[in-house]
Amino acid sequence: MTRCSSRGCPRLPTRRAEKYQAKQAIDGFFVRLGDLVSAGLVFVFTAWLALGPLGVARANVALIVLWIVIVGWIVHRHNALTAERAAAEAA
User: Fold this and answer.
1) I need a surface site. Which of 3, 19, 49, 78 has the fewest CB within 10 A?
2) pLDDT per residue as tens digits for the range 59-81
3) Where in the chain are the domains?
4) What's the whole-model pTM score?
C-alpha cells in the first residue's frame, strides 16, 4: 500500500479509485472554498466588526477550538467506520 500525504489522498475508508475521484473534488472545490472563507472571515473581523489585532487573534483562537472539536468528531467517526469495515471483511 502506498502512503500518501493528508492532502494527497483523503484518509477515508474507501476504495483506491474512490479516493482519487474525491481528490479531484477536494482540489478543485474545497481548498478554494476554504481560501474564500478565510479571506471572508478576515474581512468580516476587520471591516464589519472593527476588531483590532487582539480581537482577530481571540476570534481565531475560538475558531481553532471549534475546528479541533470538529476534527475530533471526524476522527471518532472514521475509527468507527474503519472498525465496521474490518469486521465486515473478517466475517
Assistant:
1) 3
2) 999 999 999 999 999 999 999 99
3) 15-50, 53-91
4) 0.57
